[in-house]
Write a structure and sequence with these properties.
With about 160 residues, the protein is mainly β. Helices cover about 0% and strands about 30% of the residues. The strands form two sheets. Strands 3, 6, 7, 8 and 9 form a five-stranded antiparallel β-sheet that branches. Strands 1-2-5-4 form a four-stranded antiparallel β-sheet.
């Protein structure tokens, strides 16, 4: 299942393609998109059955809103879209409704993707006559040596003799 969103150039409309994959459709003959946008009509928005057994439908919405919806398979089985933007507890039944969000700030930003920067071709070293003397490089300083740690003195065991 999935939701694919496309925003109009003027950012006033959002087209959403709703998809039910063949596995989720479970061999259904008909599927309907049911939600707030069609007054929860169980027949107003039929979905097209594809050759692979999946279903899809495209709807246009106003932007900056959220719409609750569910899918109805063969007029009897209700399923959610598990790739929905979020879920809200239904006020009518003991179940969740899927939610599609059309907020602009959640829209994928095509312009945000930048092409990788091209590297400038490497310059070849060419000998040039220079009027400046070459900069002097500082000689690397040898690392300071730490004094060797002394091994602790060994204690010798002394035997006590008892009389």
């Amino acid at each position: 299942m999935s939701l694919k969103k496309t925003f109009s150039a003027d950012k006033t409309k959002c087209s959403v393609t709703f998809n039910i994959n063949a596995t989720a459709a479970a061999g259904a003959e008909k599927a309907y998109l049911v939600g707030e946008f069609n007054d929860w009509s169980e027949t107003a928005t039929p979905m097209k059955k594809n050759a692979d057994g999946s279903f899809s439908v495209k709807k246009q919405f106003e932007v900056n809103k959220e719409y609750q919806f569910r899918y109805l398979l063969d007029g009897k089985t209700w399923i959610n879209d598990w790739k929905a933007d979020k879920y809200i507890r239904s006020e009518l039944v003991n179940d969740d409704n899927s939610v599609v969000s059309t907020y602009i700030d959640e829209a994928p930003k095509a312009s945000a993707k930048k092409a990788p920067a091209k590297k400038a071709p490497a310059k070849k070293a060419t000998p040039k006559a220079s009027t400046k003397a070459p900069a002097k490089k500082e000689a690397a300083k040898p690392a300071a040596k730490k004094p060797a740690a002394k091994a602790p003195a060994k204690k010798t065991a002394t035997k006590k003799t008892t009389k």
